[in-house]
Write a structure and sequence with these properties.
Layout (H helix, E strand, L loop, with lengths): L3 E2 L3 H14 L1 E7 L4 H9 L9 E7 L4 H10 L8 E6 L2 E7 L5 H9 L1
Parallel strand pairs: 1-3, 2-3
Antiparallel strand pairs: 2-4, 4-5
Helix pairs in contact: 1-3
């Protein structure tokens, strides 16, 4: 899968205010030192988003402030690992840890 890396609050604002009005956005917050996060990332390897879905990746250890900004902006509790589906500037779905599941994610995107 081709992840688009996010590293700034400005990029998150662009997702919320612009990109998510045209495309469904998925944000995966990943801790590079956490084994559970690695399991969640492997579960997402077979995710094949349609062309109207953009998938973003945040290394939350390098960009903890951005991770906190995501929690505030989309009104979700910070978790790690965590996946969010953003449509029209709002988090319409989020899940974390070993509850991250590709089939559930695909179902949320296609709703």
């Amino acid at each position: 899968m081709n992840w688009e890396h996010v590293t700034s609050e400005e990029e998150i604002l662009d997702i919320a205010e612009n990109i998510s009005s045209k495309s469904t956005c998925v944000i995966f917050k990943h801790s590079t030192t956490c084994s559970i996060s690695s399991v969640a990332q492997r579960r997402l390897q077979d995710f094949k988003p349609s062309e109207n879905v953009r998938v973003f990746y945040l290394d939350l250890l390098r960009h903890r402030g951005v991770s906190n900004f995501i929690a505030d902006k989309f009104e979700v509790r910070h978790e790690s690992p965590q996946i969010l589906v953003i449509k029209n500037g709002k988090a319409v779905y989020h899940n974390s840890h070993l509850s991250i599941d590709i089939q559930e994610l695909e179902g949320q995107i296609n709703d």
